[in-house]
Amino acid sequence: MPLKPRILSVAPMIDWTDRHCRRFHRALTQHTWLYTEMITTGALIHGDRARFLRFNPEEHLVAFQLGGSDPADLARCAAWVEQAGYDEVNLNCGCPSERVQKGAFGACLMAEPDLVAQCVDAMRQSCGIDVTVKHRIGLDYDESPQLMFDFIGKVSEAGCKTFIVHARNAVLKGLSPKENREIPPLRYALVQRLKADFPDLQIILNGGIKTIEDIHQHLEWADGCMIGREAYTNPWLLTRFDSVSEGGAISEVGSRAEVLQSLRSYVESELAQGESLRNLTRSWLGIYHGQPGGRLFRQVLSDATRLKTNRWSVVEEAIACTADKQFA
């Protein structure tokens, strides 16, 4: 079965890419892959599984990212992910946080390619959707490529054909997750060499990609690009993604205010079910990034007193601070 193309995607980001964020992103781009934040196998097995697996039908194509290192647990969870209707299940082998390391998964798994291969094999045996792996290019301050090449070689033999590569090392001790996204140097050339050595694998580049120009440059050799924080801080960038992935004109999504107005029925339905306006709109704060009234828009949608009212009128008040005020 041919691999689904993943030309552009939005990275899984803990505490950021929840289903409300993904629903917002889908209003900006129709053909970009969306990823859940990482959910652990323990959360699915012992927690509120239905809540963790819930997503909006509009989100397709959408992938679920799992955190774990026990093949049996991962297989069990992968089957649930498929049953829930996701298009892909992704194994996290890139998160460097100490909390994740204590659970013996995330980036530290790069040092255990045999175990990851067992995990991938078990997941593939239990589900029929794509099983992919997201990882770093190395661990700590060792810049030798051998660890990554050995990791890719072993895991690909287990049947994984898509690797999402964050082009930085993961420093397991001494750096915070935020510092791990900034301090280890980006080494795109190493990922390009990886693609040359494994031409039959789908290699998706992640890390430091912020502009459409960056994307075009990397797509000269990579199979796809995954965009992280820029998609959250400057979400309007996503309106240009379909022109890249589909090779056509920029999507006609309307103005920023029209995009937000298109989400009104979704927001009001969620509010009626007890969701908070803060949770529904926190991913919207950057939509007027660099635009007149953008700062005031963010202030209104961040005001605790206003947000407590849980009314759509707060969104209209925020839009009224911008050049789109005629749409409020």
TrEMBL record:
Described purpose of this protein according to its UniProt entry: Catalyzes the synthesis of 5,6-dihydrouridine (D), a modified base found in the D-loop of most tRNAs, via the reduction of the C5-C6 double bond in target uridines. Specifically modifies U20 and U20a in tRNAs.
Which residues hold FMN? 65, 134, 166, 206-208, 228-229
NCBIfam families, sorted: PRK11815.1, yjbN
This protein's source sits in the domain of life called Bacteria
Species, as recorded = Limnobacter litoralis
Enzyme Commission number(s): 1.3.1.91
Keyword set for this entry? Answer: Flavoprotein, FMN, NADP, Oxidoreductase, RNA-binding, tRNA processing, tRNA-binding
Which family does the record assign?
Belongs to the Dus family. DusA subfamily. Belongs to the dus family.
Q: Does the keyword Nucleotide-binding apply?
A: no
Taken from the record, one Pfam family name reads Dus
Q: Which reaction does it catalyse?
A: 5,6-dihydrouridine(20a) in tRNA + NADP(+) = uridine(20a) in tRNA + NADPH + H(+); 5,6-dihydrouridine(20a) in tRNA + NAD(+) = uridine(20a) in tRNA + NADH + H(+); 5,6-dihydrouridine(20) in tRNA + NAD(+) = uridine(20) in tRNA + NADH + H(+); 5,6-dihydrouridine(20) in tRNA + NADP(+) = uridine(20) in tRNA + NADPH + H(+)
Residue ranges of domain DUS-like FMN-binding in the record: 10-310
The catalytic residues are 95 (proton donor)
Which Gene3D superfamilies does the record match to this protein? 1.20.120.1460, Aldolase class I
Q: Its gene?
A: dusA
The entry's protein name is tRNA-dihydrouridine(20/20a) synthase
